[in-house]
């Protein structure tokens, strides 16, 4: 885990100039989410390390459904 990652995440979020909307990144692989009125930020985990991936389905809202790799029980 990166020390003081929430502060870094807030700075990254502001650079997108996307205030009020979700920003999703995977670069740092911290598995961290901030869901506040003025910041909506999701940083994904390292899927290779977790031996899983996500399927994203959009209906009325976005849902992440974790999928395990074939033959892996983690």
Report on this structure:
With 74 residues, this protein is α+β, with helices and mostly antiparallel strands. The chain has one domain (5-68). It contains 2 helices and 5 strands. A hairpin with a 3-residue loop joins strand 4 (52-58) and strand 5 (62-68).
How would you describe this structure in keywords?
flat, 20% helix, 2 helices, two-stranded antiparallel ribbon, 74 residues, alpha+beta
Care to give the gist of this entry?
The chain is α+β, with helices and mostly antiparallel strands and 74 residues long. The protein has helices spanning 5-15, 47-50; strands at 22-25, 32-36, 39-43, 52-58, 62-68. The strands form 2 sheets. A 3-stranded mixed β-sheet has the order 1-3-2, with helices on one face. It has a two-stranded antiparallel ribbon with strand order 4-5.
